[in-house]
Input
Amino acid sequence: MLEKMNEFFDKRLDGYEEHQLNVIESANEFYPFTAACLPVNENAAVLDLGCGTGLELGYYFELNKTAKVTGIDLAEGMLKVLKEKFADKSLTIIQGSYFDVPFEKDFYDAAVSVESLHHFTKDEKIPLYRKVFEALKADGYFILTDYFAESDESEIFFRKELIRLKAEQGIDDNEFYHYDTPLTVEHEIQALKEAGFSTVEILGQWGATCAIRAKK
Ligand SMILES: C[S@@+](CC[C@H](N)C(=O)[O-])C[C@H]1O[C@@H](n2cnc3c(N)ncnc32)[C@H](O)[C@@H]1O
Output
């Protein structure tokens, strides 16, 4: 059964972090790697899309205690844990969809997203990435760490499966359901470039997971 995105994560809150770190290949490497790509300057403003309980932010706050982070997530329970974990940090929490929440323009030194954006199509991502582009300062950048489809066929297969499952379960609303539909890394890079990013590079790769940096 497909589950609504926020309910899926809130239901699995117990043991969520252990699952991410122990079950996902090389997670103990790509979380600290992602954090180390973020700015270390004092009061750096960072936007986290789909921050969840803040696994990447734990590593980041170790490197930059003065960072001012805005975290956006759909799941109330995940955000409650986040708030408790980082009560002493400068953290603005927004419960909502990053597709809908307006971002302050020319404000952030960097944006980051880890393991959240593999649920959406290229067409859905381009306007979101445009919004991220506009939210960044002139020398800002976006670090996207996520897992990617191994082929065009696999990308198409999972998208069709989601459509089939929604039809089978009589789901015809526009809400987000948890079902992984990763793009290929090539299509992800195209989406970032089409949104306006000037330089898009793969900084690290661990199996199906890549860390991508998109510079404004
Ligand atoms: C696998 S968790 C990753 C959380 C965190 N970044 C980490 O790596 O531990 C994916 C998160 O993305 C959030 N999410 C998915 N779609 C979203 C959307 N459209 N807007 C905001 N958050 C979203 C989910 O609620 C969930 O907390």
